[in-house]
Amino acid sequence: MGNDLSVINNYCEISKTSLRFKGDVTKTEWAKVFSGLKTIEGCVQFWIGDCLKYREQKWGMYDDVAEESGIELKTLQNITSVSNSIKPSRRREELGFSHHAEVAPLEEDQLNLVQI
After folding, report:
1. pTM: predicted TM-score of the whole model, two decimal places
2. What is the full DSSP assignment across 51-99?
3. Which of 23, 32, 45, 69 has its CA 20 to 30 A from that of 112?
4. Which domain holds residue 60?
């Protein structure tokens, strides 16, 4: 995953609202950037969940984060629940967050039967 993400910085300048190529790129380089973007798309929910988990462990609940971010508290709680249920070592890069969310309600012994 690291290479997918770092390649974006090599070829692009990014901001919250834009991506601009720093110069002329080949089709192969463009494809690497696109792959990196797809990787990011699949990572963000786990990153948010892990970030909120840290916040919750260190300082308590995060109702204020919901208000400040504009993301509904229930959505943040669901993301955090999946991140808590599926430990990083069990997460599979080839599966999306929604796949992990489907098996998150399973008990640990049931998770051992699922190939994720």
Report:
1. 0.74
2. HHHHHHHHH---HHHHHHH---HHHHHHHHHHHHHS-GGG--TTS-HHH
3. 45
4. 2-111
